[in-house]
Amino acid sequence: EQQAMAHRLYTLVFPMDEQNGRVLLGMKKRGFGRDKLNGFGGKVEVNETIAEGAARELAEESGLEAKSMKQCGLLMFYFENDPVAMEVHVFLVHKYEGTAVESDEMRPQWFGIHDMPFKQMWADDSLWWPYVLKEQKFVGQFWFKADQVTVTREKLSAVDSL
Ligand code: 6OG
């Protein structure tokens, strides 16, 4: 029988400007995923819920305060030679307060939702972003080589609830 793999909880948050059809991404300046554009997020801490962690990371990294947040996806990432999987809870923020500001970790920039800079993003993003555009919830599993670029296996599907 197969045993559940050890995993660690993360959040990934995309602030949406629906009026202008834009999404806020951040250029990661340090740490894991450095020099990639991504949503905002990080590890969930022990004394917070996943949603609280998502809002906290968004505020820390972008300066935006979430006023309404919805989970849109659940992603599992497995890296070659890493026994701990990443369980990433993906959220969309449609209402927020504040203005995006650069932080130590992220340089925020708005992009058209139909004009995403996938070449500068993680390889999985171009695969599941179409679900976001269709307002369809999704779950995905992606197996990466240690190079953090090559996806060797993927599973992705639409779900009714998360
Ligand atoms: P910190 O190390 O900054 O948290 N993340 C990924 N995001 C995408 N789109 N694809 C991946 O493919 C990712 N792996 C990790 C989750 C890491 C942040 O990076 C996201 C967190 O928001 C492998 O604390």
From TrEMBL:
Residues 6-136 form the Nudix hydrolase domain. One of its GO terms (biological process) is DNA protection. Its main location: nucleus. Keywords: Hydrolase, Magnesium, Metal-binding, Nucleus. It is found in: Nucleus. One of its GO terms (molecular function) is metal ion binding. GO terms for cellular component: cytoplasm; nucleus. Belongs to the Nudix hydrolase family. Monomer. Oxidized purine nucleoside triphosphate hydrolase which is a prominent sanitizer of the oxidized nucleotide pool. Catalyzes the hydrolysis of 2-oxo-dATP (2-hydroxy-dATP) into 2-oxo-dAMP. Also has a significant hydrolase activity toward 2-oxo-ATP, 8-oxo-dGTP and 8-oxo-dATP. Through the hydrolysis of oxidized purine nucleoside triphosphates, prevents their incorporation into DNA and the subsequent transversions A:T to C:G and G:C to T:A. Also catalyzes the hydrolysis of methylated purine nucleoside triphosphate preventing their integration into DNA. This is Oxidized purine nucleoside triphosphate hydrolase. It comes from Coemansia aciculifera. The lineage of its organism: Eukaryota, Fungi, Fungi incertae sedis, Zoopagomycota, Kickxellomycotina. The chain holds residues 170 to 331 of 334 of the full protein.
